[in-house]
Amino acid sequence: MDNYDIVKTLIRTEKATLLYEPNAKYAFWVNRVANKLQIKKAVEQIYKVKVDRVNTHILKGKAKRIRYQLGYTSDWKEAIVTLKEGNKIETT
Question: What is the pTM of this model?
Answer without folding.
Answer: 0.88
